[in-house]
Amino acid sequence: MNINEFNRLLAQKRRELDNLIRRKMPEKVGKMAKAHYQDNIRVRQGFQNGGITPYPATRRKQSGSNSAAANYGALLSSKKHLYNSIKYTPSDYRVRVANDLKYAPVHNWGGTVQVTPRMRRYFWYRYISTPGKKKGKKTVESDEQKKWKALALSAKKKSAFVIPQRQFLGKSRELEDQIWQTLDNEVRSVIHKS
User: Fold this and answer.
1) Do residues 30 and 122 both lie within one domain?
2) 140 with 60, same domain?
């Protein structure tokens, strides 16, 4: 190989590496990050960053109810809105991974939520649709009904409830290690490819 062939090969490898870093890696990293963050919700039930920080138990889990909703893990529901809304947008040399749902930040960082009139209507609906418990020939309010009624009747001005932090997006050492390993493998395959 003479110097001209070497320079051509070097220019070709530079173009391939630039294409890898600019176009291919953002797409790969986006897919890896989305899968990692979805696994935080579905599989790990906690945030993985140098170990797993488990999510606080949900009230529906603690209630001991046999309903289908009580069997879902934290941040999961039958429709999986939060889970399915994790998206990535690749661009040149970078990728943006986010969840644009209105309530995603409250779950990711925790916070206080004010009770709205719409929520009160929902609480009344749940109160009415939840069956009472039998006591002899009478039907009395069940514990779950009492919970919904208390939420619906809470003080109008000051009613709020705290959502504990259940982080599912953010910096993760394990994800970074996986990204660096993938980048290393991809760069090596470009360099060693003839």
Assistant:
1) no
2) no
Q: Is 175 exposed, middle or buried (0-12, 13-18, 19+ CB in 10 A)?
A: buried
Task: Say if residues 75 and 41 touch (Cβ distance below 8 Å).
Answer: yes
**Section 46-56 average pLDDT:** 92
pLDDT band at 32 (very low <50, low <70, confident <90, very high): very high
**Per-residue model confidence as pLDDT tens digits over 117-158:** 898 999 999 999 988 887 878 888 888 888 889 888 887 777
Q: Are residues 156 and 93 part of one domain? A: no
**What total number of domains does the chain contain?**
2
DSSP E strand stretches across the chain: 46-48, 52-54, 86-91, 94-99, 111-114, 133-135, 138-140, 160-163
- Domain with 179, as residue range(s), is 3-109+169-192
Q: Please, which residues bridge with residue 52 across strands?
A: 48
Q: Which amino acid is at 56?
A: P
Contact (CB, 8 A) for 113 and 163? yes
Cβ-contact 99, 80 below 8 angstroms: no
The span from the CA of 144 to the CA of 59, in Å, is: 11
